[in-house]
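Batch manifest, entry 17 of 40.
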Amino acid sequence: DLENRVKLAKNFLNNDNQVKIELILKGREKAYSYNAIKILENFVKDLGDVKIIQSVKKQGGKIFAIVAPKN
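Output type: structure tokens
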């Protein structure tokens, strides 16, 4: 499933669009948010050579990052 999301994100980036990657944590997941941060960082690495607009940030029950294509 993660591979499909990476593929879709690459499609958006190839069309010169920004991509907001967001994980919503529920229940006990909030206590182990460091795992979600690792997943998000790996996702950004899998996208390849991108410009990070907003680095990985935790806000409440969400963890997100915004990336854009490098020009």
